[in-house]
Design brief:
Layout (H helix, E strand, L loop, with lengths): L5 E6 L5 H10 L4 E5 L9 H14 L6 E5 L7 H13 L3 E4 L6 H17 L7 E6 L2 H5 L1 H5 L5 E6 L1 H8 L13 H14 L2 E4 L7 H14 L3 E4 L2 H10 L4 H19 L5 E2 L2 E2 L2 H14 L1
Parallel strand pairs: 1-2, 1-8, 2-3, 3-4, 4-5, 5-6, 6-7, 7-8
Antiparallel strand pairs: 9-10
Helix pairs in contact: 2-3, 9-10, 11-12
């Protein structure tokens, strides 16, 4: 399971995309999302595909997640994105928009399986972040999250979600008009044992963004999409796990395993540690890697 506390979008149409992308990787965000969907007008998509491929080939990834948001499976751009970006560029993950039913991620899964077999990669080494952006998607969220092992994250797209409901998105109210929608996607993600990532806000208002991040964490989201270094830094502090919790997990895991080897009860920071707490620490320790 990856750290996905902060995921930063960069549109693929910029002439200096490689420089912009490297700054994101060198910065605070856990994940870089190179966008060729909503952030790119149709006339600019060929240029974006070329730019993104260049980035995937030249970027110093530094073990961070490099994700590409491609276009919907029912558009003419989907096959072009696969052919001109994903197959030659081999990103860490693919963010698939408009997942209304499991058929969409399953179509992408088939393409990624073909690519992995062609290049001798481990199965499911390219992950899917499935974007849920409609009432039908919310209804099917659990089935989308469990349709294949490659789906390791579901994420909510609130701009399209509001549009689908016929609502005007109101940042000041933090999207909580759609309270049930947010609760259900978190519940389904937990039931499916995948991560759940919250939406980006299309505003630079620091107070609104920080309030949203805190509320999002309280709702149970693992992270959110951001569009600035400051937002990424704040999200990393708020969302679980924090750097301090990761360090705690590594230390607890080591102590438990030492005690187990010596056949003695484990006491860590004055508390008796059971196997369930140890397993939780193991999961967090893996994320620190």
């Amino acid at each position: 399971m990856r750290l996905r506390r902060s995921l930063m979008y960069v549109s693929g149409y910029y002439d200096d995309l490689l420089e912009r992308a490297q700054k994101v990787v060198d910065g605070n965000a856990d994940c870089l999302i190179l966008d060729t969907q909503d952030g790119v007008a149709p006339a600019n998509k060929p240029k974006a595909r070329k730019n993104i491929l260049e980035v995937l080939k030249k970027l110093d990834r530094k073990d961070k997640e490099i994700c590409v948001r491609i276009n919907e499976v029912d558009t003419p751009y989907f096959e072009l994105d696969i052919k001109e970006i994903i197959e030659p560029g081999l990103p860490s993950s693919v963010r698939l928009p408009e997942c209304h039913t499991p058929e969409a991620p399953l179509k992408l899964d088939a393409e990624l399986t073909r690519i992995e077999q062609k290049y001798g990669l481990e199965p499911n080494s390219i992950e899917i972040q499935a974007m849920i952006e409609s009432p039908m998607g919310i209804r099917n969220a659990y089935d989308i999250a469990t349709c294949c092992d490659r789906v390791t994250c579901i994420t909510i797209g609130m701009q399209d979600m509001n549009r689908a409901f016929g609502f005007q998105r109101r940042y000041i109210d933090n999207d909580f008009d759609l309270l049930y929608v947010r609760q259900k996607i978190v519940c389904d993600a937990r039931a499916a044992q995948v991560q759940v990532v919250d939406t980006v806000l299309l505003t630079d208002n620091v107070e609104i963004n920080e309030k949203y991040t805190r509320k999002s964490k309280e709702f149970g989201f693992d992270g959110r999409a951001v569009h600035s270094e400051d937002e990424a830094a704040y999200a990393n502090k708020v969302y679980y796990p924090t750097p301090e919790q990761l360090d705690w997990a590594v230390a607890l895991k080591a102590e438990y395993e030492r005690c187990e080897a010596e056949c003695i009860p484990c006491v860590f920071e004055g508390k008796s540690i059971c196997y369930a707490v140890y397993k939780q620490a193991c999961g967090l320790a893996e994320m620190k890697k």
